Amino acid sequence: MINKLLFKYCPYCAAPLKDGKENRSFIQICPNCGWIHYFNPVPSSAILPVLPDGQIVLIRRQNEPFAGKWAIPSGFVEYGENPEETALRELKEETGLTGKIDSLLDISEKETPAYGSVLVITYLVNITGGEMEAHDDAKEIAAFSPDKFPPIEIKLFQDVLDKYKRRQSAIAGKSH
Length: 176
What we know:
Elements: H1 2-5, E1 18-22, E2 25-29, E3 36-38, E4 42-50, E5 56-61, E6 70-71, E7 74-76, H2 83-95, E8 97-112, E9 116-130, E10 138-144, H3 155-174
Parallel strand pairs: 4-9
Antiparallel strand pairs: 1-2, 2-3, 4-7, 5-6, 5-10, 8-9
């Protein structure tokens, strides 16, 4: 994957870059001016939207990767945006819903064929308004009881849903 991300020349002095390593990471170094190209993960936010009745809103993806598969809403952090803002923007763009962040649910790194390393920051969001309707990257939208999710083929999202179910079970156990 890294081959797609390689520079050939330094963006500052145009000297040919050399391959190198720093700690565990592959880097490119300019032997002329010392500029270093780090291969950092692309930041993204994902949202686990919870309706007032406890159901979880999922989307069926319209676009690749994973077109036609069920997923939680997500998207890349844009320049000048923090991950929380991204989460609420993506929620509105994909589902038509608005919400309030309840808590941080998960932070994971995933190697992807299309984007390289992606850092996924997932928030639990309580839905506060809007009209539930598929928009943007969502082909379809539906609400599911946590014990009746459809098959989730994106492993990272399945892991988030499993973590949420474990968290809810622990909370229920404490309330007894």
